[in-house]
Amino acid sequence: MSAYVFCQIAAGDLPSWIVMSNEHVVAFLDKKPATRGHMLIVTREHRRDLWALLPNEATAAMSAARQLAHAARSALGATGMNLKQNNGEEAGQDVFHFHLHVIPRYPDDTVLPGCVWGIPPWRVPSLSASDQDQTADAIRENLGSG
Predict the structure, then answer these.
(1) What is the spatial distance between Cα 60 and Cα 114, in angstroms, rounded to a whole number?
(2) Exposed, middle or buried by CB within 10 Å (0-12, 13-18, 19+), for 61?
């Protein structure tokens, strides 16, 4: 088993709320979401960052982000969407496996402009495992909406 948590999720070795997968990427709900429906898209193959990403993986990640954004708008009523991706420690990357955040935005969320979470006035959304199950189901059911 890989030491990288995202490799383990992509391989199906760790439980997660997977909402989409294909030959290049896996998308799942973030365990510590900024907002309801916050998803991560990771490469199936371990790629440290954007510089290590293959062109077909980059295309797959952006295509998945577009599909998931449409699904989150239909399923969750998101009125905005942030895509956030960090490369290198100096840029804020803290898990060294390529990942793209897809963060639904709502009029009443507390994430700061520019998609900064973890700093007040941001508050962790109160979501139970059951809430996450329902959110993942709703997103999966709405993947064809865009």
Answers:
(1) 24
(2) buried
Q: Per the confidence metrics, is the pTM higher than 0.70?
A: yes
pLDDT one-digit tens code per residue, 82-118: 999 999 999 888 899 999 999 999 998 988 877 777 7
Tabulate helix, strand, coil % of the chain (nearest 5): 35, 20, 45
Helices 129-141 & 55-76, crossing angle to 10 degrees?
A: 110
CA dihedral sign of residues 93, 4, 133, 120: negative
Closest by alpha carbon to 34, among 106, 92, 140, 133? 106
List Cα–Cα distances, 71 to 81, 88, 123, 134, 136, in angstroms. 11, 30, 24, 14, 10
Closest CA to 85 of 65, 105, 70, 107: 65
Return the ∠ at Cα 10 (arms to 73 and 119), rounded to 5°.
55
